[in-house]
Specification:
heterodimer; A: mainly alpha; MetI-like fold; two-stranded antiparallel sheet; globular; B: 330 residues; Rossmann fold; 6-stranded mixed β-sheet; 18 strands; nucleotide-binding (chain B); transmembrane transporter activity (chain B); ATP binding (chain B); ATP-binding (chain B)
Chain lengths: 306, 330
């Protein structure tokens, strides 16, 4: 009787022990994640517990919270506060602007309109970030197109009133916090629209009909059905906009008043100042803020609809 | 007399498609009304014309005498049990049920009580804190029912309410729905493609085809006296006999229906027709014989204890002349 070789010892073994296969498949990405990603993060965390010797400028490898104490010095604390407020403002504004766009795309856009939507949202992501930021610097400059356009429609008084606001105003939009805010908003908006649109698309249409049928007005349906169900998408989007703003060091350097943001502080301390521990401590701040933010979002029930 | 729901020459066209084509109908207050038909026959569109999710292209919809087709869904005195229930996944069962009261501004304590009472009515007391995802299909169905009924609608609309349930649960829910409708006295209008469901639950059945009502009547009417060939085919209870068959019996030429249980077996030459036995199916209480008469295949139900002739045998078929029911071509 002829015997056919129907078996393959290796695949048989994998069938009998599926966990071996799983481990083999997962090992490379886990190694990458563990060593490169978590490892570097751990190294960063470790650095932040060292301190710098103020006289020699050398790193003192003894565990201390002294560097974190430095963060509380007014100059540093202002940087943290400024960055967090900016990130929060950008996040809220992104959500407000993104919602109607995402809602339209999820509920009404079909066929070509939908393709146009994706293209319009993604297109800015395809060009260089630096090019976009410099373009905005020109747009917002005192001699720029925006000032010209505002003049053209006779609204320069409004622009001047805006620029004369304390703190957020300035000589021109390109050297004010308002300018920084606008550029952040522009650059990170797609990261809010896309997850929001995905989550709105998953809201079944019959839930909206059910709400309508039960007597809810459109506003009530929005508040009690659509927003809670879109919340995971909005949180996902806000994680992007919030953390990207927290960590960015290029936009505030090119557009805005010359006051520092966390990213710039990290850049300055690890570079010219050579204060790696303080740079590390600054870098830990966004991580902590994001952790607190997500914890609060979870407690508020933002993920209940998942 | 005022009707719960009235359609006055209502049409709903989607482009070239006439989903509902010049339908007039009256649904009596307190009745259990079924809209029966295959998919695409216009029954669901009719339901949505009552709930307000569709607006008529022509004609008027009235609810308790008041013009309704100009009102948005949230201002109509009707509530819907949706096909796949459409429960809000982020809300607890209690909040789902209380939703209609909440959007009307009823205070928290009283709407909570009302929701709990309604959950008791549908036998789900104690489930208020769960999320819809933690319930079985049958339980979700009850929540959907409670969520609609808590608003005390004048008319309850049910869109294929039992379609997603398994057979046994479906039968139990049929009885419960019927009992609930009786005790509440609310007009129920439900859409189904399951003729058994329509016939067993409804007081009045409208059979839809191609956007029109082809027959409106009691379940008995529909079952015993299908008006057209389509109704007989769709309700599926009877042999549908072509005009040639009637001609061969020396009757006026027309389509006719003859229920399987009305036919009995006799010796060849002794009945109205002779035929050849082509098959037998045992259905428990009866044996369903397939008998070929000329070009027509007839089903005849004979008691399970009666002897069954061998396949291929020639048999005589007989029936009471009144059992042969004439129909339109339709």
């Amino acid at each position: 009787m002829a015997t056919h070789r129907l078996t393959n010892p290796l695949s048989d073994m994998f069938w009998r022990r599926p966990r071996v296969l799983l481990a083999l498949l997962l090992a490379p990405p886990l190694l990458w994640l563990g060593v490169v990603y978590i490892g570097s993060l751990a190294a960063l965390l470790l650095q932040s517990f060292f301190s710098i010797d103020e006289f020699s400028g050398l790193i003192n490898y003894e565990f201390t919270l002294k560097t974190y104490g430095e963060l509380l010095r007014p100059a540093n604390y202002d940087i943290v506060l400024r960055t967090t407020l900016m990130a929060a403002a950008v996040t809220v504004a992104s959500a407000v602007i993104a919602f109607p766009i995402a809602f339209y795309a999820a509920r009404y856009a079909k066929g070509r309109m939908k393709a146009f939507f994706y293209l319009a949202v993604m297109l800015p992501l395809w060009s260089s970030y630096l090019v976009k930021v410099y373009a905005w610097k020109l747009i917002l400059a005192k001699e720029g197109i925006l000032t010209w356009a505002v003049d053209g429609i006779g609204a320069s008084a409004a622009l001047n009133a805006l620029l004369s606001l304390p703190v957020i105003g300035g000589n021109s939009l390109s050297v004010s916090y308002i300018g920084t805010f606008l550029v952040f908003l522009y650059v990170w908006l797609p990261y809010m629209i896309l997850p929001l649109q995905a989550s709105l698309e998953r809201v079944p249409a019959n839930l909206l009909e059910a709400s309508d049928d039960l007597g809810a007005s459109r506003g009530q349906t929005l508040r009690h059905v659509i927003l809670p169900l879109a919340m995971p998408g909005m949180i996902a989007g806000s994680i992007f906009t919030f953390s990207l703003t927290l960590g960015d060091y290029i936009i505030p350097q090119i557009v805005g008043s010359s006051r520092n943001f966390i990213g710039q502080a990290v850049y300055a301390h690890q570079g010219t100042a050579g204060n790696i521990p303080l740079a590390a401590a600054f870098a830990v701040v966004p991580i902590v803020i994001m952790g607190v933010y997500l914890w609060m979002a979870k407690r508020k029930g933002a993920f209940d609809a998942l | 007399m005022s009707f719960a729901v009235e359609f006055d020459r209502v049409a709903r066209h989607f482009g070239q498609v006439r989903a509902v084509d010049d339908v007039s109908l009256q649904i009596a207050e307190g009745s259990f009304f079924a809209m029966l038909g295959p998919s695409g026959s216009g029954k669901t569109t009719c339901l949505r014309l009552i709930s307000g999710f569709e607006r008529p292209t022509a004609g008027q919809v009235r609810i308790f005498g008041d013009r309704a087709d100009t009102l948005p869904p949230n201002r109509r005195p009707v509530n819907t049990v949706f096909q796949d229930y459409a429960l809000f996944p982020h809300l607890s069962v209690r909040d789902n049920v209380a939703y209609g009261l909440m959007v009307r501004g009823q205070n928290k304590a009283s709407r909570r009580d009302a929701a709990e009472n309604m959950l008791t009515l549908v036998k789900l007391d104690g489930y208020g804190d769960r999320k819809p995802a933690q319930l079985s299909g049958g339980q979700r169905q009850r929540v959907a029912l409670a969520r609609a009924l808590v608003n005390k609608p004048k008319v309850l609309l049910l869109d294929e309410p039992l379609g997603a349930l398994d057979l046994k649960l479906r039968e139990a829910m049929q009885d419960e729905l019927k009992a609930l409708q009786k005790s509440l006295g609310i007009t129920f209008v439900f859409v189904t493609h399951d003729q058994g469901e329509a016939l067993s639950m409804a007081d009045t059945v409208a059979v839809f085809n191609d956007g029109k009502i082809v027959q409106l009547g009691t379940p008995e009417d529909i079952y015993q006296r299908p008006r057209t060939r389509f109704v007989a085919d769709f309700v599926g209870s009877a042999n549908v006999l072509p005009p040639e068959f009637c001609s061969s019996l020396d009757l006026a030429r027309s389509w006719a229906s003859l229920r399987a249980e009305a036919i009995s077996l006799t010796a060849p030459g002794r009945g109205q027709v002779d035929g050849t036995l082509t098959g037998t199916r045992y259905l428990g209480a009866v044996n369903r014989l397939s008998v070929r008469v000329g070009k027509t295949e007839l089903s005849a139900d004979i008691p399970a204890h009666a002897p069954v002739p061998a396949p291929g045998a020639t048999v005589g078929l007989t029936w009471d002349a009144r059992a042969l029911h004439r129909m339109e071509e339709g």
